[in-house]
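Lab notebook, bench 4. Still working through the backlog of constructs that have no structural model yet. Next entry is a single chain of 194 residues. Request: give me the structure tokens for it.
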Amino acid sequence: MTMALETVLAKAGLRVTADEFLSLVEDVARRLAPPHPEPATYFTPEQQVALTDVGLDLGGLREDDFEPRARALAAQTVLLDSALTVTDAARVLDVDTSRIRHRLAAGRLAGWKDRGSWRLPAWQFTDSGVLPGLEVVLAAMPDDQPPLVLAGFMTTAQPDFPLGDSAGSPREWLLAGGDPRRVAAVAAMLGTPA
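Model written out:
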């Protein structure tokens, strides 16, 4: 299994050994929600009746369901492994590390603290600097959204961002010269009820 895992990691461009990856997986799995949550337990009996009346299945995972924790765990691991340090980001932007910390504090770059050190998700950088319109999008993003939600939003194709005949991700839209205010308007709605 180790060789197969190392092959997958290498193909994905992840810079970790199989053992390091498995340690990351174990760490993230510990921090995620309960291993087998029963959705019904999160609601009052009245809420359960209302939700089931509109067709929601509040039963637990079935044997044939894909484990959603595994998907979240994989996404979290890739986000962490592909993230840049402050030094890496300073090198990409050709600035001093203090400028990166200043941009983080001002909300002009996205990042999170991991074991006391800043980590900056790679999706916000391009070959020539910072993603165009990033500051506009970050200013609109609700503060309570974790880095994984922001990364998923910015890198997932959505019909709101058409590129030619197909949907593009907000990142692709911005790279193609799309209006960042359009991305900001959608980003502002993250975490709000539909």
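Notes after review: The CA atoms of residues 17 and 90 lie 26 Å apart. The chain has a mean pLDDT of 83. Flag for follow-up if needed.
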